[in-house]
């Protein structure tokens, strides 16, 4: 039985007598556990009853079937050993012996520090000579080096390894002996830098965005002398300023506006119990390059680029659409690293996003905005020099008029603009009069 579980020690005998038998459960060389007299009175040994709470009991409703099995709750290593079940009815006395072996998995230290040595053991009390031991780690078989005892027995109930993220998790010890199998499990939790959990983790961010480089230590660890370095492409010690609102184990830093030159390898570090713990990570920067094909006027070609594409398995382009509540949805999904868009089409205007995926799902995305435009009419040079353009769109005209009106009592800074506005306004009024006549 696994430590801290319930063990059931079998004792089944169908007596010939119609009278209720007397039953005694004892641990060999260690006294009585539980007994029931023929009268029905029950007694518990002092080691098996604490403050009226009995750890061992026999379900009386099974007696009529001849089942006198003993149930022991929360078994301990000290419970292991030989037990006897004595059933007395009339002049018949039946004794059944049961060996209880307790299996327990434990590690030393209880919470290994990452990159340090640790051991995990499978203890069986009492140990069965000639037993086989197999280890399963996170549902996969684990092979380790065998040890040979002084009497020539090969054992593998102890594993000694260096603490790495892949060894964290569930460890199960499977013990085989004389055709029977028992097992016990334990969760191995490692201390150190838990986010990111592994070295060389990649963090993705588009140009111009804000990104946090994570560096979180295990709960309960207070690292001293935390520091950040940029390792590649050129080594530099970063002036890491940690927010007072951050928990003491969180030494993450934030880059407010990512630039292309921020890509590369970073390292965070901190000292715990005299040991310097480090974690390396890579910042991958994404951007969209645009070009305008000379043969296709009004079109723009977009290319999704990342400073490291080793994890990327697929690219996807989507047009992002927002409703009046600000909720977004996507449409026009297209696969591939490149895309050519007719920017004069109203259906294509707005926000486009390049999503990039890895083996386990989406890694990140980067966006490109196509300006909302309508058909343009020629503009005078004075307007063009000020990055303004003429439009037949009435909303644009009204906006220009609204901006221009406060200037009427002042010196006009853009006389050409006022002329254009009046000209367009007059043309618009003339068109409306012509429509009314028709």
From TrEMBL:
Transmembrane segments: none
Protein's recorded name: Ig-like domain-containing protein
UniProt entry keywords in alphabetical sequence: Immunoglobulin domain
GO CC terms of this entry: external side of plasma membrane; membrane raft
Positions of the Ig-like domain: 1-95, 116-189, 196-278, 300-355
Any GO molecular function: MHC class II protein binding
InterPro entries in the record: Ig-like_dom, Ig-like_dom_sf, Ig-like_fold, Ig_sub, Ig_sub2, Ig_V-set, Immunoglobulin_dom
Biological process terms in GO annotation: interleukin-15-mediated signaling pathway; positive regulation of ERK1 and ERK2 cascade; T cell activation
Keyword Transmembrane helix appears in the UniProt entry: no
PANTHER family in the cross-refs: MICROFIBRIL-ASSOCIATED GLYCOPROTEIN 3, T-CELL SURFACE GLYCOPROTEIN CD4
């Amino acid at each position: 039985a696994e430590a801290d579980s319930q063990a059931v020690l079998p004792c089944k005998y169908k007596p010939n007598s119609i009278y209720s038998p007397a039953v005694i459960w004892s641990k060999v060389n260690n006294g009585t556990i539980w007994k029931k007299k023929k009268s029905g009175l029950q007694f518990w040994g002092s080691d098996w009853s604490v403050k009226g709470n009995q750890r061992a009991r026999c379900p009386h409703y099974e007696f009529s079937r001849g089942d006198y099995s003993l149930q022991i709750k929360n078994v301990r290593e000290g419970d292991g050993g030989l037990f006897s079940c004595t059933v007395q009815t009339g002049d018949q006395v039946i004794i059944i012996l049961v060996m209880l072996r307790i299996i327990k998995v434990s590690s030393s230290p209880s919470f290994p520090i990452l990159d340090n040595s640790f051991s995990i053991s499978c203890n069986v009390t009492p140990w069965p000579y000639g037993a086989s031991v197999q280890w399963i780690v996170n549902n996969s078989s684990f092979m380790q080096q065998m040890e040979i005892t002084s009497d020539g027995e090969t054992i593998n109930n102890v594993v000694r390894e260096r603490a790495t993220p892949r060894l964290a998790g569930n460890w199960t010890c499977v013990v085989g002996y004389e055709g029977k199998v028992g097992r016990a499990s334990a969760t191995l939790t490692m201390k150190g830098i838990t986010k990111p959990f592994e070295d060389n983790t990649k963090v993705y961010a588009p140009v111009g965005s804000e990104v946090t480089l994570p560096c979180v230590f295990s709960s309960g660890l207070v690292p001293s002398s935390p520091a950040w370095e940029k390792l590649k492409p050129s080594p530099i010690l970063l002036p890491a300023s940690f927010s007072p609102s951050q928990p003491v184990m969180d030494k993450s830093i934030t880059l407010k506006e990512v630039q292309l030159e921020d890509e590369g390898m970073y390292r965070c570090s901190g000292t715990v119990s005299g040991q310097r713990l480090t974690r390396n990570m890579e910042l991958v920067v994404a951007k969209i390059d645009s070009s305008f094909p000379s043969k296709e006027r009004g079109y723009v070609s977009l290319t999704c680029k990342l400073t490291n594409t080793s994890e990327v398995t697929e690219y996807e382009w989507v047009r992002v659409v927002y409703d009046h509540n600000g909720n977004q949805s996507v449409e026009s999904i297209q696969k591939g690293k490149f895309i050519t868009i007719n920017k004069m089409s109203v259906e294509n205007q707005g926000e486009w996003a390049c999503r990039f995926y890895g083996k386990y799902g989406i890694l990140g995305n980067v966006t490109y905005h196509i300006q909302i435009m309508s058909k343009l009419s020629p503009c005078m040079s004075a307007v063009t020099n000020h990055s303004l353009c003429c439009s037949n769109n009435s909303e644009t005209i009204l906006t220009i008029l609204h901006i221009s009106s406060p200037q009427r009592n002042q010196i006009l800074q853009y006389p050409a603009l006022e002329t254009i506005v009046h000209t367009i306004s007059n043309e618009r009024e003339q068109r409306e009069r012509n429509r009314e006549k028709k």
